[in-house]
Design goal:
Layout lengths: L2 E8 L8 E8 L4 E5 L6 H8 L7 E6 L2 E2 L10 E5 L12 H5 L7 H6 L16 H12 L6 E5 L7 H18 L2 E5 L3 H7 L2 E4 H4 L2
Parallel strand pairs: 3-8, 3-9, 6-7, 7-8
Antiparallel strand pairs: 1-2, 1-4, 4-5
Bound molecules: adenosine-5'-triphosphate.
The site of adenosine-5'-triphosphate has 10 residues, from α1.
Pfam family, one: ABC_tran
InterPro entries: AAA+_ATPase, ABC_transp_ATP-bind, ABC_transporter-like_ATP-bd, ABC_transporter-like_CS, P-loop_NTPase
Organism: Peribacillus asahii
């Protein structure tokens, strides 16, 4: 199930083009780094892959079929970004947040260090790192074929970062899930990725 963009171009409204003619592929089980200066469109590109934005031109396909919009059911390309507090309904208790798209099993909760007592709390009663574990669990449903980690662990301490990546990599290997890692942390990218693409080079 290859994830592929063909000749995609995108701009916000009448702003200048952020990118044009982008051809990009990720294979199942592959871990690809996406790096580049701030403001060059990495997050926007990820949002297109995950169906949150529609490109002005070109197509995004999974296994040769056009990818559906985020609004229509569980999306096979899941995006986890830097700010979990913006991705979680503040009025829901964490148990409900966790089971929004699927029901993660105890093994995954343990691997991500999610504690039972957190499930009855509201999001504002947890730390950013604790909340991010829920966002990761939520994104790892059985129908996830690709995970996009957009600065996913940037705000976390080294131990939490390692714990989360260990759990994610194990699942990715078991399921042949592809991962796109966006990060400004060179060490993290070097450690995790099979290949690295610079956003500048997406256009060439
Ligand atoms: N909703 C929006 N409407 C208009 N312009 C936007 C919108 N979202 C982002 N932009 C602009 O598009 C450009 C690319 O933003 P994007 O967040 O994709 O970059 P990035 O490479 O991920 O940056 P960073 O590394 O800082 O996260 C920026 O100039 C940004 O200001």
């Amino acid at each position: 199930m290859q994830l592929r963009t063909q000749n995609i171009a995108f701009r916000y409204g009448k702003e200048p083009w952020l990118f044009k003619n982008v051809n990009f592929t990720v294979d199942p089980g592959e871990i690809v780094g996406l790096v580049g200066p701030s403001g060059y469109g990495k997050t926007t590109f990820c949002r297109i892959l995950a169906g949150y934005e529609v490109p002005n031109k070109g197509s995004v396909t999974l296994n040769g079929r056009p990818i559906k919009s985020k609004r229509k059911g569980y999306h096979p390309v899941q995006l986890v970004f830097q700010h979990p507090e913006k991705a979680i309904n503040p009025r829901w208790k964490m148990g409900k947040v966790l089971n929004e798209g699927w029901q993660p099993d105890q093994q995954l909760l343990d691997a991500l260090g999610i504690e039972e007592e957190w499930l009855t709390r509201f999001p504002n009663e947890l730390s950013g790192g604790e909340l991010q574990r829920f966002c990761v669990a939520r994104a790892l449903g059985p129908d996830t074929r690709y995970l996009i980690a957009d600065e996913m662990t940037t705000m976390l301490d080294a131990i939490t970062q390692a714990q989360i990546w260990k759990a994610v990599l194990k699942i990715a290997e078991q399921r042949e899930m592809g991962i796109i890692v966006v990060s400004h942390e060179v060490n993290l990218i070097q450690q995790l990725c099979h290949r690295v693409i610079e956003i500048d080079h997406l256009n060439t």
